[in-house]
Amino acid sequence: MATIGAPFEPGHVVHLFEHVLDEVQSAGSARVTLGRSSFLIRRELVADLRAADLAGPIPALGRPLLVLHSPTHATVAAANAGRIFAAAAEPKSLVPLDGCDHLLTDREQAERAAGLIADWAEQHLPPH
Do you know which SUPFAM superfamilies this protein is assigned to (predicted)? Predict the structure, then answer.
């Protein structure tokens, strides 16, 4: 399993659509644009994000975990990667993605991340 720029506390992402929370609560949903994409945010998603606690599920994954995160990540602080990594059981790896943005919009950086994941996964997958 691999994470890229993931928050340790999923509720963290609610701030990205705070401006429509009143509409989500009253109407049940609202449309929000994040990056270049439009999403329908439902009341249930907000509740699930706020209730999620990864402190238990991360150590119980039962899978090797690769945590990739940019030390200069502007959307999700790098400390989140450290918390995910600390919570994970072995085998686990933490790899910095220097210079990457949250959506890996730079093709070269995205290909680098994909290559790192592929190389890492090869070590942890059973032989063909």
Answer: alpha/beta-Hydrolases (SSF53474)
